[in-house]
Amino acid sequence: MKRTTIKELHQKIGEEVMIKGWVESYRRLGAKMAFIILRERTGQTQIICHNPSETLSKQTVIEVVGTVKEEKQSKYNGIEVAASYNNIKVISKAPEELPVGTSNKTETTFTTELNYNALTLRSERRSNIFKIEAEVINAFREFMRYNEFTEIHSTKLVKEGLEGGGEMFEVNYFGEKSYLSQSPQFYKQMMVGVYERVFEVGKVYRAEGSNSNRHLSEYIGLDMEMGFINSVEEIMEMEENMLKYVFGVLASKLRREIEYFGVNIPHIGNIPRITYTEAIEMIEQKYGNVEGEGFNNEMEIQISEIIKEKCGEEFVFITKYPLSKRPFYTMPSEEEGCSESFELIYKGMEITTGGQRIHNYEQLVESLKTNGFNPKEYEKYLMSFKYGMPPHGGCGIGTERIVKQLLNLNTVEQASLVPRTKSRFV
Amino acid sequence: MKRTTIKELHQKIGEEVMIKGWVESYRRLGAKMAFIILRERTGQTQIICHNPSETLSKQTVIEVVGTVKEEKQSKYNGIEVAASYNNIKVISKAPEELPVGTSNKTETTFTTELNYNALTLRSERRSNIFKIEAEVINAFREFMRYNEFTEIHSTKLVKEGLEGGGEMFEVNYFGEKSYLSQSPQFYKQMMVGVYERVFEVGKVYRAEGSNSNRHLSEYIGLDMEMGFINSVEEIMEMEENMLKYVFGVLASKLRREIEYFGVNIPHIGNIPRITYTEAIEMIEQKYGNVEGEGFNNEMEIQISEIIKEKCGEEFVFITKYPLSKRPFYTMPSEEEGCSESFELIYKGMEITTGGQRIHNYEQLVESLKTNGFNPKEYEKYLMSFKYGMPPHGGCGIGTERIVKQLLNLNTVEQASLVPRTKSRFV
Question: What ipTM was predicted for this assembly?
Answer without folding.
Answer: 0.96
